[in-house]
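Troubleshooting: if your tokenizer reports a length mismatch, compare your output against this known-good record of 479 residues.
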Amino acid sequence: MPLNLGNNKHVFLDWSLIEPGYGVAWGGEPTSWEMPYGVRIAAHPPTIDPTPLIVPEHPWESFINVYCTLLDDDGRLRLYYETHVTKEDGATDDLKAMLAYAESTDGVRWHKPQLGLVNFRGSTANNLVFGLDLALGRGAHGVTVFKDPGAPPAERYKLIHMGREEGRYRVFGAVSPDGLRWQALPEPLLDNYISDTQTVVRFDERRGRYIGYFRSWAHLAHAPGVHGRRAIAYAETEDFRHWPTPETIVVPQASDTPDVDIYTNGYTLWPGTSDAHLMFPAYYVRALDLLEIHLLTSRDGYRWERPWRTPLIDAGEPGSGREGGVYAGCGLIATRPGEWSLPIGPKRWTHNQSHFAVGRKIPDAGLLRRAVWRPDGITSLEAEHEGQCATYVLQVSGTRLLVNAWTRFGGEVRCEVTDPAGMPIEGHSFADCDPVSGDNPAQVVSWRGDADLTPLIGTPVRLRLRLKRARLHALQFLT
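Known-good structure output:
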């Protein structure tokens, strides 16, 4: 049965759309058939904007932690970030974390409004929205905020965080009508569970369930958390107020060195899709005492691959401001035209440096920056020189074919439409195709100037793709 993409965007984070072919096909003459060559699935590091998103400016943010949420709330850009008041010796306490708020029109310049919501040292003239008394004394560590479109108006926004109550670590939640005025839920979402990192939750509208990514521990030897390695756990529920115990789903692998932990998850849904999931976890190397951001991919949010063993964003050189490591926050969104942004927390201190008084003599009050890609630019189907492949048989489900492509000078992308057996359809061969060249985030494919696929709607076809010095990030049928 032909694949039906509908009008959904397909992004190339795996080989799920590409025909593997046969090197030697059986029957008849021993010949190869539709063998892909010269192409690969590639990941592309971002550029790091040197202009900070947020820097410490006020007494309630003498230290800004790496945990943050970047939201596009119907065109209103919102940033929630964790702040601390440092002690006299420069140390911080996770269980006294607070949540601050900023907003922007372009994702680059941010305003910290005086909201008048949270009392800090006798004044509400600040941009705090949660923590202190609002968290019922339980702390607000590792907060993630998300919008729940199907919830009642009073609970349209939700947050999740770790805290401690009655001497036990628990996962707590809060609800809000506007993302500013929060009411803590009295009962824990998870009891006796330590998720001492940024816990990420969202509502999956297709499934009608909340899905969440938590801290867990793998390879335990004698006691939980003592000899184990940090890992990522998953849980889902129909009721935000009640969660099952998370199940460990991503752990350090044998190909990693034995001192590796997966410190955060950095989960996000690929913008504009429902079947492309990303994680930007910070991998902690204990021997070096630093963290670097890797890339994990998934089609269902549960089964994950780590196709590339090298960091997507590495720790920088001395003087870079991230020589101690780098973390990803939550939220990959479109900011300025032609830019997608992910918040990151670069660190001058290594992970354990702040636990020693001598380490705190090197100033690091924390800040947030942007990792920036072109739209859909995280991964691609790439040919460094020349390559070709074909899709599985799929159904034409639109009047036009849109591609997101980037090529080097002299490069191009061409598309040939064939029948299921691989015979070109008249007027839609490689020779007929108008090449796509340059930087084209949204280019309609045409054949001798004609882009109309209406006569082929519902027809089973293959798309044969030829790339020269090119990256194909996405394709989509449009109505």
